[in-house]
Amino acid sequence: MDTQVIIVGAGPVGLTLALDLGLRGVRCILLEKKLEPQFLPKMERCNARSMEMFRRIGLADELRAAGLTTDSVMDVYIILTMTRAPLLHLKYPSVDMAREQIRKINDGSTPLEPYQLISQYTLEPVLKQAAERIPTVTVRYGTELMEFEEDGPSVVATVRSSDGRSRKIRAAYLVGCDGGSSSVRRQLGIPLRGEANLAKFRQGLYRCDELYDRLPLGEGPGRGRHYLVADEWATFLIMQDSKRHWTLHAAVEWRMASEPPPGRSLPSWARISGRRCRTPGHSRRGSWHEHRCR
């Protein structure tokens, strides 16, 4: 066999599985069709159990150093705009505060590790570099799974690299870690249960170097991680781990991004700073256009 395990998908799940198997001496090949980790905002927080797993494989401290500083509060606000007093303020402890709470209790009823705010575009490169340090792990970006079939006690996968070349890889196991639209799941005929398209949101990625440091703006909310806007578009603003990048989400049609229909005002995401503004960025099939706030 070429390897013991083929892992399809180098997101946080596939990379973590490769690390775990590699540290146990299991030979594995990790396949990812993207050429490299992408600067796309997806997940932005690892929960306590995830951090316990990263602690076990020796990465908890490295991930905390790469993510949001441990003294940063994790508060959530429900607001009308960023310049008016919040409707509700939900307080959540920083990592340092959570660690202190864990030390004081110390009876096994609390997690060993607190959560950590770390954006997926920060997390993936750290995990990738760690996986590449393990001799039993082969990481192949720019390699797409085309099909696979059982062959006695093994599975044979046909893969294609970014230069168009195809080859077959034989392993004892194949694991699909390739997300909700998983090609592994589809080829196995496993249906995706549940309702689809419950809501459609537009997402914008902003860079604003001064916003976090200037909070609060007037009577607006203080520093936090989530700002939920009480409007008809279910708008919310999320701070990413750098405190410089922010994502805005709203259930609006794209045509409203630059100018609303007659008789309607701009949605809250276009005026939460207290003034009209244009949408700073949008997604085109995964390609992000970043604009700096001035």
Summarize the topology.
Blueprint: E1 5-8, H1 12-23, E2 28-32, H2 48-56, H3 60-66, E3 76-79, E4 88-90, H4 95-105, H5 120-132, E5 137-141, E6 143-151, E7 154-161, E8 166-171, E9 173-176, H6 183-188, E10 202-207, H7 211-214, E11 226-229, E12 236-239, E13 245-250, E14 283-284, E15 287-288, E16 291-292
Parallel strand pairs: 1-2, 1-9, 2-5, 3-11, 10-16
Antiparallel strand pairs: 3-4, 6-7, 7-8, 10-13, 11-12, 12-13, 14-15
Specify the CATH architecture of the domain at 5-40 and 120-188.
3-Layer(bba) Sandwich
Helix and strand succession?
EHEHHEEHHEEEEEHEHEEEEEE
Shape, per Cα inertia axes: globular
> Percent of residues in beta strands?
25-35%
Q: So, the CATH homologous superfamily of the domain at 5-40 and 120-188?
A: FAD/NAD(P)-binding domain
Residue runs with pLDDT of under 50 for 5 or more positions: 272-294
Q: Count all strands and give the number.
A: 16
- Largest β sheet strand count, sense and barrel closure: 7 strands, mixed
CATH topology of the domain at 5-40 and 120-188: FAD/NAD(P)-binding domain
Structural class: alpha/beta
Task: Output the strand order for the largest sheet.
Answer: 4-3-11-12-13-10-16
| Beginning-to-end CA distance, first to last residue | 56 Å
The first-level CATH class of the domain at 5-40 and 120-188 is given as Alpha Beta
List keywords for this structure.
4-stranded parallel beta sheet; 7 helices; 294 residues; 21% helix; FAD/NAD(P)-binding domain; globular; alpha/beta; 7-stranded mixed beta sheet
